[in-house]
Amino acid sequence: MINKAPLDLIKKLNQIGIALSSETNLRRLLELIVYEVRNFTHADAGSLYIRDGDKLQFEVAQNDTIDNRLRVQKDHFRPFVLPFTNESIAGH
């Protein structure tokens, strides 16, 4: 008998791949990446940033618990830049 769990996992990964490859808007693609990774790993929150030289550009931040507590809309996060230094956890 074949274990169904690995087959479901492969099917879900294929669905994620199709969704990622069909998205042409970079902002929505990054949001989708974080959303799908969080969903796949059962994570409550996640973020994505891009290093640009000596700066960190935070592109995506998602947190279901905070969104639910504050009753805010999912699109309240705005990208921002941090210096890539030891003075922040992300830069360290």
Textual characterization of the structure:
With 92 residues, the chain is of the alpha+beta class. Helix content is 46%, strand content 23%. It is built from 3 helices and 3 strands. It has a 3-stranded antiparallel β-sheet with strand order 1-2-3. α1 packs antiparallel against α2. It is globular. The chain starts with a helix and ends in a 9-residue tail after the last strand. The model has no long low-confidence stretch (mean pLDDT 82).
Labels describing this entry:
92 residues, alpha+beta, 3-stranded antiparallel β-sheet, 3 helices, 3 strands, 23% strand
Shape: globular
What gyration radius follows from the Cα positions, in whole Å? 16 Å
Largest sheet: 3 strands, antiparallel
Q: Based on the structure, what is the oligomeric state of the protein chains?
A: single chain
Low-confidence parts, pLDDT < 50 over ≥5 residues? none
Number of helices: 3
**Roughly how many Å apart are the termini?**
49 Å
Approximate strand percentage: 15-25%
Mean pLDDT: 82
Q: Look at the helices and sheets and give the structural class.
A: alpha+beta
The largest beta-sheet arranges its strands as 1-2-3
Task: Say how many strands there are.
Answer: 3
Helix share bin: 40-55%
Q: Spell out the helices and strands N to C.
A: HHEEHE
